[in-house]
Amino acid sequence: MSGRATTAACALAAALAACGSDPALDDADQAWASTVARWQTIAPITAAVVADVSAGTSCDAPIFEHAPDQVVATGSTFKLYVLAAVAELVADGRLAWDTPVTLDAGHLVPGRECTDIPTLPHCRGAGATMTVAELAAYMVKLSDNSATDHLLALVGGAPTIEALLGLLGHSAVARNQPLLATRQMFALKLFDWPALADAYLGEPTVAARRAFLDEELAALDPFDVWLTEGTAWVSTGPRAIDTIEWFSSPRDLCVGLLTLRAQLEADASGTLAEILTFEGADAQRIDPDVWPFVGFKGGSEPGVRSSAVLARHRSGRWIAVTMGFNDPDAMPDFDASVATEVLDVLPLVDAAL
Predict the structure, then answer these.
(1) What is the 8-class DSSP label of residue 290?
(2) Is the pLDDT of residue 15 over 80?
(3) What contacts 213, CB < 8 A, 6 or more positions away?
(4) At 78, phi and psi to the nearest 5?
(5) Interval 201-238: pLDDT, tens
(6) Nearest-angstrom CA–CA distance, 89 and 337
């Protein structure tokens, strides 16, 4: 049996039974097969790719894979594409990391409590100023939606990211059109659910949906319903995760990480590396002697968990790990944070290298 492509090695519905003790699999493959089997108890739709991206040209030769071309809802992991667009403008000299951005009320979105982090964009309020680097750090490290929507507008809005997806050969460009700002996604899932969302989905063309977003959502402020409807959303479960979301396959996200890897190496200031560097309690599980750099972005909403890691191994090799878990009927049954599953894969990768 040839290496890591466990999808071909084992029937997914019986991964433990079929693969758990197969002598043709080495220890790393055995561990991967068991990991995939466990994931399938967490959510009905699971997919992942682990690839060596040191050459910087392709994600087509994975170390491990499981349904790598399964398109899934990714939640906030899509923000990596926004970061790549920002980094490209910085590299071209059209932006700088210290470029000031004035906060706009139309791009502010509810988020964490201001008593906890008073420096968040929605806590500072319209008219305040933040730098591009500050917004990018909040977008990646805290998944702040206000920071995301300001940067999305700064790079040219949805059409820019849609065009980037096309250039990267993304497999689900059409499903991401029109690409939603986070404020728009919240409005569709919080206001008059499900009537407003159904009206949006009922529009027959991408152009008609763009017009709907511009005309019907412009006056809706998620802050008005965040406390009541946000709680209802979490308690009642997933809302339209197969139609109102951001979509990628694990291989698509891996290709996005290829772009960021090249941008990291080209950014002499080190700012992009600082923005991507994984921090927080979960980061303490990473052995820095084995993984001297780990960049992370995750995403979640009811029914969605997604993670992407770009890491440099002690051997100097660059590794991309991308995964998604979707359940249209319930929250994927995780016992820990969105980072847990992807970090659990890193020791398997170290053993396989």
Answers:
(1) T
(2) no
(3) 178, 180, 184, 200
(4) -60, -20
(5) 999 999 999 999 999 998 899 989 988 888 888 888 99
(6) 32
